[in-house]
Specification:
The complex is a heterotetramer, with 2 copies of chain A (610 residues) and 2 copies of chain B (342 residues). Chain A is an alpha/beta fold. Chain A is built from 20 helices and 23 strands. Chain A has a 7-stranded mixed β-sheet with strand order 11-10-12-13-15-14-21, sandwiched between helices. In chain A, strands 3-4-2-5-6-7 form a 6-stranded mixed β-sheet, with helices on both faces. In chain A, strands 18-20-19-22-23 form a 5-stranded mixed β-sheet, sandwiched between helices. With 342 residues, chain B is α/β, with parallel strands linked by helices. Chain B has a single domain, classed as Thiamin diphosphate (ThDP)-binding fold, Pyr/PP domains (Rossmann fold, 3-Layer(aba) Sandwich), CATH 3.40.50.970. In chain B, 32% of the residues lie in helices and 21% in strands. In chain B, a hairpin with a 5-residue loop joins β13 and β14. Classes of the chains: A alpha/beta (610), B alpha/beta (342). The interface between A and C is large, with 71 and 72 residues. β17 of chain A pairs parallel with β2 of chain B. The structure holds thiamine diphosphate (TPP) (2 copies), iron/sulfur cluster (SF4) (2 copies) and magnesium ion (2 copies). One iron/sulfur cluster binds next to loops of chain D.
């Protein structure tokens, strides 16, 4: 931990200061390079030991449209989106007026001095920065100006709220992975702005950052990178994808971390990354790969999922392992590609025509993104079926604080694969081998891989009706038998897949049921409600089909609130489908406002029904 | 009689066909069986792919000792791409139809070729949708009439031309009624490194066999123009080449050496056609289209360009057979990663 | 009505005869031309005034595999598949043994005399026909032999069970649409077989056809043709499709009936029929057409529906009218293309990612296929959304007896379209026009068509976020407002779409809820159960989202049986989703055995639970 | 200054662009605006189509007076096919990207061309996926390197060659930096009956503008080789043609008469190229590919073959505007139908 070299700020502020508990929102133009400056701020706070989270609200465009980056510092470790903003850094003139209007009373505005932003509010503090002048002083060339202008607010923020310059310098170096020159150039501007602020600004607000010990041993990472690492440690060997926001960075970080999977001698890859021509081809490729014995995955989002419907049915019915990551965004249709939602749940569970159902894993934290990353590949081979993992834009593309990830606690699971020797032995013992016969009573058969050098290894794979011996059949009895086995396999999933995380004290009457990235908002909301005497239990479902205790949880409360971030309340619909008892005490609270869920929303909704 | 690996021809058969008696597709299955038998293909190393259609049913009817995958309509190329990436030791034979390849599957077909996934891709082209009872496909000839569906007023796609333009390095056309040529081309294709496309006109005796139609059996028998007489000589085929070639005047005989050591020998019949010349290959097809000629044979051959798996720079062990130690990085690797996020 | 010229059959049968109440199943090889002979039999029966139904069980292949055609004659007018077969015409040696084994005790076998069929049964009557000899006698050339062999059983059946030859002759002429020559050739063989039977067979079974008056004023038609006609009378103007069983014959019969929609002078078409390159293109085409002002539809089945998922979301979100007929077949995946199922219900209702839901019409009779054929096109324009109509293979491809279809009782509905004049007037009155504003409180806005010659007619259509003015927007409030309107539109559907057919007597404790082609089996089952003292109410749902009385029906019974022909009980799942009250009294009875539902199955299932 | 129908150039604009400053796509929007203005296009008769991508966003940025449809990624051709079938009076301008057309949309692109749906189809080709931040597309050049995504080892599709082989009757290539040529080609395309494809190289200044890359602005500026100097003369353009032509030696000047009465005049620069000759068009493109030459201009033009709607034999009134009486057969018609089923 670095020491706080914060100079004493000259202040005219008298009231109690608010330390490490506010949200700072930076408004800029997309493509202006503000990621760097924001990353520098958030990393410095993290290094100061202050629990932080960053929410990036960016447009579906490459340059010029409004974008907001909200950094929340919270001493108690709450990392959900904060419903209020205390400090607004207004570096986008187009939105300045609205940004200021949305500011919490008593808040702070940091803004270039030469801007008009309409009505000024009496209840907020303004700090105006001479951006142009400072850049001229720093002799920044025109082509760098736009990007580096952002460093001006870094300097000002550092001074005003207490970010040690050495921290910032370290964070800068990380950002430019230790390239001294660009780091120095940027630092010069930060320092300039810092000094100017010190000499010209009078602190008139209560907000302060102070070094604390809230991040020791923690990591800061985006969900998509966690998923990528989980997949890499899960032994993925074929990745086929077609770019689509917000899933692209998942595959990107598999590429970025490919060194983990290069042969030390030859430097060659143990992962094939195939950029397909579209999502039909992407899933077709991983199905072919899974069939041939690779551990395969694709990552996509809504529109891509829609295009994968037919192939998903083939993989389920022909029983081929593969993993599909759906990093969800706001739909229907192309919708809002850069806004978050949990709106694909029902669709992926029932994906494809004709009585199709699929397992869906629901990671709620970056740690689970990693864990489900490797587990999904195991489940796929154990169940011989496509396994979906539903993350979302908020979880996948934002920075989250987390404990470090645990190394897989079990060896890689390949499920029931008969290689040459095992097949010989199997035939020895059973005097037969039928691809689609349920020998173990779990609904899962034994498969051979193409290329297995045994005269009886071959079987024919098809999406058409077949009997246990994998021969084509249109017989009603063969069909029924096969579908009954598949249903049995579906039941097997309830025990195998990750069970819910439950906090259940029978004495409490209110149950909250949710899943995925809403976790942080709910944790915070529960604490606040508890502080106000409203005690709640909490079950976070982590997979569909549901484990058996889900039903119990719903039925054992006077009030159950099913909290999700989509429009139709899809989790609640799935629950009703499975629970035939009276569920009028179960209220669907579906947000779907395009933003990550906030604790405030959860509290308001629940209180409105209590 | 047993072949080099001690298998009879019948060993290379599959389940009994459920196609219409006389269907061209069945002849092609037989030609594949013969080719595999002659080449002594190890069946356990072969994989069969197809989409959906009468043609796509046929992989069940040959090489019963090989794994087969009857996928979905028109999207087989992507499945094959995945399988051949997962296990580069496999030998792939894909069968598709003109609807499966030219209509619903056209995009995947073109992208398969662009990637140059190593496999033999056979189109059993009857200019009609057989399995759905006789609708026109994208290769149905303009002006062609069908009993039920009337007149086709759209131009036909030429899948060989499309393959060449798309970057395919082995492109041939044949006729299911010309067993010897088809068989020889299949052998040659199996010796090729990269995607090898063979467009085989294969009459649908039930829905598109009117002698007036260009895809009918009678039409093929009457009008096939072989671009050359083709012979396939497996690796290590012995006799002094010079002697032979000596007998032939310039351009009368073309010998193409395949990367597996085998040789294709093309004897001129009456057409002047050098399959190694891209421009002439294109012109030959354009001419055939213009003048409505049914030309068959090896239309285009090019020195193999890198196959798809080569562009991926994979380890030599097939991905499907990696050891768990190669699949999962070490505990330390994770630990130091975690450090970097602190 | 023709008179019965049946000669008195010489008989050794003593017991009471069974008249017009048995099922005759003809087993042949696919592609052997038995459709003609079977059609001749069924049409003759129909003309005799005997209520009939025909179920065609055919393989997914063109020639050579087993196929069965079951003709049920039932004096009481029950037309569902009969669970038992009384008369087996065994003209396929491959299946003869099994066909005989499956025969009801006391049944009849009609079979070529020179065949082996394994064990002969003591409890059935055999009639052996010298097929070869008769064909030789009739001097049939080898290339006709296979087809015409089928006429031999027609002749025998005519004699044995009493089909007047003149009826048969008329039916034959219809089949060969009055081409005398082929008709004569076939008739000769029929007569030959008839006479041979008369001279050589001794009637030893109780089964008889007798002229009655059960079909006066009725029609006999396949559902797909009814749907096609409904669409033609509904003013469809653009049809785009990609061939797939069992929907192909729907588009085929639009083509066959195109004369109804040709311009009398020019002979040119008012319907464009576009054979697309796949189902993505098919739905894309009808969306473009619907957007431009045509009345458009596509017809497909499971795999095609899966491929239409992405485009369906676009049409719903951009609010474009089009109609999608899903003539369902057995899935998952390619499944059994020639077997029936109702397995796409859930999938099409929730088709596409991100909170998508769609109206689904559920015709239960050929009459409704016609009616929903034209109504669906109206609904699509009224609701400005894709409307699904879910038929199935049994309803679509089998022959059904029905009352004649009623001419549409209302003019064509185009919904809210502003042409040049109406737009001017609208602007006049409202001083504005916003494409996506809810002016009428029904969630449906006003649209203009491209090409409208008014300077303010243009708007931009997109699948991305937009505000009421159809301008691109990423604002949370715009998004929410739009989705709330769409939800409101969804509620509007409950009243607009066809309401259930209900037979509800409050005194009865058992309710049956079903949909689609199960209707005939349920009608029959109810009568039989009633006859045995088990009284039931019946609601046949005809659309999703449900009308408001569906809930009531479920809640107002002690036992509710949800009867459907799929594997997962999808209708029951949908009902549970909507009903939060206790529904443990609601039992899901899902068949999914690949066959049309039989009354016997319904009875057995219900009784097992009573 | 107002055009023939009294509109200013600004009237043809759309919403302000949200693309990156300097994006080649914005220039193309301007060229479309100018062409429409010069031709006095009635905006209410025009429809704009696009898929998804930066390029596909642009229809919102021109011709605000026209209906536009920003559809889904890669499947716009089918939507356009439906709309142009429903209302044959419309004039269609479609904008797509190289990913939208060459990757996900390749099948639909080829089938659109096969059907010859009347429309101008502009590909704003930057050899990269702009909107998803710089992945390679199917037109990225082999051997090209990108900062983030590294080396592309797959061959590039030539969309012009694909269009010609597919049966397109108007195929051109241009460069967003060559306003005059692009504009002229757009006008000519609007005069064409059938699908007119213009592949416009349009640099992505954010992700693929390294001067070393063939799709960069600098590269285009330096290396563009115009196949000819092209002029467009609207219908009724007056002056004695002979006089002009007289000044030109054989083959120096080619005049193409469009079906709407306008004329395209091609003056030879230094390449010998007659766009009316299919073989030479193909060879020109093959040469360009082989020798890596950036050739622009009207590459191929053919006498229009029947458009898609013509093959459907529709009534003259657009289907979208049929009277209900034409849409619904009579009561009697139904009655007699019912009879036939009794
Ligand atoms: C997604 C999808 N659409 C449609 C079908 C129906 N279908 C099965 S085969 C076929 C066409 C087959 O034609 P072709 O590929 O030429 O094969 P052929 O039967 O002529 O050999 C079609 C349309 C399907 N199985 N899947
Ligand atoms: C089905 C689907 N998959 C992926 C995407 C994500 N996506 C949007 S645009 C695009 C590529 C655009 O590239 P291009 O067509 O070349 O247009 P450009 O942005 O380069 O102009 C992709 C992959 C999508 N919108 N829909
Ligand atoms: S329908 Fe045609 S393609 Fe299919 S099996 Fe019969 S003959 Fe062959
Ligand atoms: S990213 Fe590239 S293509 Fe997209 S707007 Fe920017 S410059 Fe244009
Ligand atoms: Mg075919
Ligand atoms: Mg691009």
């Amino acid at each position: 931990m670095a020491v706080n070299i914060q100079p004493d700020v000259q202040t005219q502020f008298t009231g109690a200061s608010i330390v490490n508990d506010f949200a700072l929102s930076v408004a800029t133009k997309n493509g202006s390079g503000s990621q760097t400056s924001n990353a520098v701020i958030i990393r410095s706070l993290f290094r100061m030991g202050i629990p932080v989270s960053g929410k990036n609200l960016f447009p579906s465009n490459i340059k010029g449209l409004p974008t907001w980056y909200t950094i929340r510092a919270n001493k108690d470790g709450y990392i959900a989106r904060s419903a209020t903003t205390e400090v607004a850094v207004c570096f986008n003139q187009d939105t300045a007026a609205e940004d200021i209007a949305n500011l919490k009373s008593g808040g702070v505005v940091v803004i270039p001095s030469d801007w008009k932003w309409g009505q000024s509010r009496a209840d907020v503090t303004y700090y105006e920065l001479p951006v142009k002048e400072l850049l001229t002083q720093a002799q920044i060339g025109t082509d760098f100006r736009e990007r580096i202008a952002n460093m001006v607010y870094v300097g000002a923020v550092a001074y005003l709220f207490g970010l040690p310059l050495d921290m910032i310098n370290r964070a800068l170096l990380d950002q430019f992975n230790n390239k001294a020159k660009p780091a120095a150039m940027n630092y010069a501007v930060i320092e300039l702005a810092y000094n100017w602020s010190r000499d010209n600004l009078v602190k008139a607000d209560p907000y302060k950052f102070e070094t604390m010990n809230g991040t020791a041993g923690k990591i800061l990472i985006e969900g998509n990178e966690a998923s990528a690492l989980g997949s890499i440690f899960g032994g993925v060997s074929v990745v086929a994808w077609y770019p689509i926001t917000p899933s692209t960075s998942l595959v990107d970080s598999i590429m970025e971390n490919l060194s983990l999977r290069k042969d030390p001698e030859t430097g060659k890859n143990t992962i094939a990354i195939v950029q397909a021509e579209d999502e039909l081809a992407a899933i077709g490729t991983i199905i072919g790969a899974g069939w041939a014995g690779a551990r395969s995955l694709t990552a996509t989002s809504g529109p891509g999922i829609s295009l994968m419907a037919e192939f998903t049915g083939l993989a389920q019915f022909a029983e081929i392992p593969c993993v599909i990551w759906d990093v969800t965004r706001m739909g229907p249709s192309t919708g809002l590609p850069t806004r978050t939602s949990q709106g694909d749940l029902l669709f992926i569970h029932f994906l494809s025509h004709g009585d199709s159902r699929h397992p869906v894993l629901l990671p709620g934290t970056v740690k689970e993104c990693f864990e489900f990353g490797w587990r999904a590949l195991d489940y796929a081979e154990q169940l011989q079926t496509p396994v979906f993992v539903m993350s979302d834009l908020d979880l996948g593309m934002n920075l989250w604080m987390s404990d470090p990830f645990d190394y897989p606690d079990q060896p890689i699971q390949h499920g029931k694969v008969l290689d040459k020797e095992r097949l010989a032995q199997f035939l020895e013992e059973k005097n037969e081998w039928m691809r689609y016969r349920d020998y173990d009573g779990d609904g899962v058969g034994y498969r051979t891989l193409p290329g297995t050098d045994h005269p009886r290894a071959a079987y024919f794979t098809r999406g058409t009706g077949h009997n246990e011996a994998a021969t084509y059949s249109e017989r009603s009895d063969d069909w029924m038998k096969n579908l009954e086995r598949l249903r049995h396999k579906f039941e097997t999933m309830r025990d195998l897949l990750p069970h819910p995380i439950v906090d259940h004290d029978p004495s409490k009457k209110i149950g909250i049921l949710s899943f995925g990235s809403n976790d942080s908002a709910i944790i915070e909301a529960r604490d606040l409600m508890a502080a106000n005497g409203v005690q709640t239990n909490y079950m976070r479902v982590r997979a569909v089909p549901f484990a058996h205790n889900v039903r119990e949880f719903v039925l054992s409360h006077e009030h159950v609130y099913v909290i999700e971030n989509n429009f139709d309340g899809q989790m609640a619909q799935l629950l009703r489908m499975e629970i035939s008892e009276d569920t009028r005490h179960m209220v669907s609270l579906a947000c779907g406002d395009t933003l990550p869920m906030s604790a405030q929303w959860v509290i308001d909704q629940i209180m409105a029904h209590q | 009689m047993a072949n080099a690996i001690g298998l009879e021809r019948t060993d290379y058969k599959g389940a009994t066909s459920t196609l219409c008696p006389g269907c061209g597709h069945d002849s092609i299955s037989n030609q594949i069986i013969s080719a595999a038998y002659d080449l002594s293909l190890p069946m356990t190393q072969v994989v069969k792919f197809s989409g959906i259609g009468c043609s796509s049913k046929t992989p069940a009817y040959f090489l019963k000792g090989s794994h087969g995958f009857n996928t979905v309509h028109g999207r087989m190329p992507s499945v094959a791409t995945g399988a051949m990436t997962a296990n580069t030791d496999l030998i792939a034979i894909a069968v598709s139809g003109d609807g499966d390849t030219g209509s619903i599957g056209f995009g995947q077909f073109k992208h398969l070729i662009r990637r140059n996934v190593p496999m033999v891709y056979i189109i059993e082209n009857n200019g009609v949708y057989g399995l759905t009872k006789g609708q026109f496909s994208a290769t149905s000839d303009e002006g062609q009439e069908l009993k039920y569906y009337g007149l086709n007023e759209l131009p036909a796609l030429d899948l060989c031309l499309e393959a060449i333009i798309g970057g395919c390095t082995f492109v041939a056309r044949s006729f299911s009624g010309d067993s010897k040529q088809a068989q020889t081309l299949i052998k040659a294709a199996l010796s090729h490194r990269g995607t090898a496309v063979i467009d085989i006109i294969s009459p649908c005796v039930t829905f598109n066999n009117d002698p007036k139609g260009n895809k009918s059996y009678d039409y093929g028998k009457k009008n096939e123009i072989a671009l050359h007489q083709i012979d396939y000589m497996p690796k290590g085929y012995v006799h002094p080449r010079e002697e032979i070639t000596a007998d032939y005047a310039e351009g009368e005989l073309i010998e193409v050496d395949m990367h597996d050591g085998s040789t294709i020998r093309l004897k001129k019949v009456d057409q002047d056609h050098d399959p190694r010349n891209r421009a002439s290959a294109i012109n030959t097809l354009e001419k055939a289209q213009r003048e409505n000629l049914f030309m068959t044979g090896l239309i285009y051959y090019e020195e193999p360009r890198p196959t798809f798996d080569e562009t991926l720079h994979l380890v030599d062990t097939p991905l499907s057979h990696l050891q768990d130690a190669q699949l999962r990085p070490s505990q330390d690797a994770l630990a130091s990663l975690m450090q970097s996020f602190m």
